[in-house]
UniProtKB/TrEMBL annotation:
PANTHER family tied to this protein: ACETYLTRANSFERASE, UDP-N-ACETYLBACILLOSAMINE N-ACETYLTRANSFERASE
PglD N-terminal domain location: 11-90
UniProt name for this protein: Acetyltransferase
Pfam families: PglD_N
UniProt xrefs under SUPFAM superfamilies: Trimeric LpxA-like enzymes
Protein family membership: Belongs to the transferase hexapeptide repeat family.
Origin species: Psychrobacter proteolyticus
Transmembrane portions of the chain: none
Alphabetized InterPro entries for the sequence: AcTrfase_PglD-like (IPR020019), PglD_N (IPR041561), Trans_hexapeptide_repeat (IPR050179), Trimer_LpxA-like_sf (IPR011004)
Domain of life per record: Bacteria
């Protein structure tokens, strides 16, 4: 067998609901690429190597210590701040961020997606879209044309992000939320660290750190601190 392939290790970091949902997508991607490696879980609650959903599971220090030149990790953690801390640790340790997408994902022309993306089944990303690192797009979400999405943004299932929307770093868009289409000279803005509640219909800009709910969406409250963790990398 190809020694280069066999000298690789692939893991999904996080074995809670997010990780267990993304593991079949990750495993299918390896199979589609004819890669013989089996993806494993990283779960820091473990002291000893174990199994989760019939897959090898170990803590991060055990994974880091594997005798393997090339390691690749998909971070399956919903909290974007934790996701960033883990990403920084992985990169500092020389471990690659692994991007995974389902075979049912539709990605159109002129799309740029940063490293570490987790794209679930039946997601659509339309033309001329730019997305930062460690993006999470859950089941049946879509991103329409000419959107710009920052780092560590999370879409829950069935998010409808229409054209000319700019979403800043660490924003969270809840299940079934609808973001109204902007225009080229006035895109709809979702500010840094904002939270759009489940089922919200967003028709106007959302300030940084705001929590919005309802139809049309209204500001419920603001978070106190919307500064991203250190070493944030922006796409603009």
């Amino acid at each position: 067998m190809n020694s280069k392939i066999m000298n690789e290790a692939f893991a999904v970091y996080g074995a809670a609901g997010c990780g267990r949902s993304l593991m079949p997508v990750a495993a299918a991607q390896l199979k589609q690429l004819s890669n013989p490696n089996q993806a494993m879980f990283i779960d820091d609650s473990l002291d000893l190597q174990s199994t989760i959903n019939d897959r090898i599971a170990m803590n991060y220090e055990q994974f880091k210590g594997l005798d393997c030149a090339n390691k690749h990790v998909l971070i399956a953690i919903a909290d974007s701040n934790i996701r960033q801390k883990i990403a920084n640790r992985l990169l500092n340790d020389g471990i690659s961020l692994w991007s995974v997408q389902d075979r049912t994902t539709l990605i159109m022309e002129k799309v740029v997606i940063g490293i570490g993306a987790a794209i679930s089944p039946f997601v659509t990303i339309a033309s001329n879209v730019t997305i930062g690192k460690c993006f999470h797009a859950n089941l049946y979400s879509y991103v329409e044309h000419d959107c710009v999405i920052g780092d560590y943004v999370t879409f829950a299932p069935r998010v409808s992000c229409n054209g000319n929307v700019h979403i800043h770093d660490h924003a969270y868009i809840g299940a079934g939320a609808i973001l109204k289409q902007g225009t080229p000279n006035k895109p709809l803005i979702i500010g840094k660290g904002a939270i759009v509640g489940m089922g919200a219909v967003v028709t106007r800009d959302v300030p940084a750190g705001a929590v919005v709910v309802g139809n049309p969406a209204r500001v419920l409250n603001k978070q106190v601190d919307v500064k991203p963790p250190p070493n944030t990398i922006h796409i603009q």
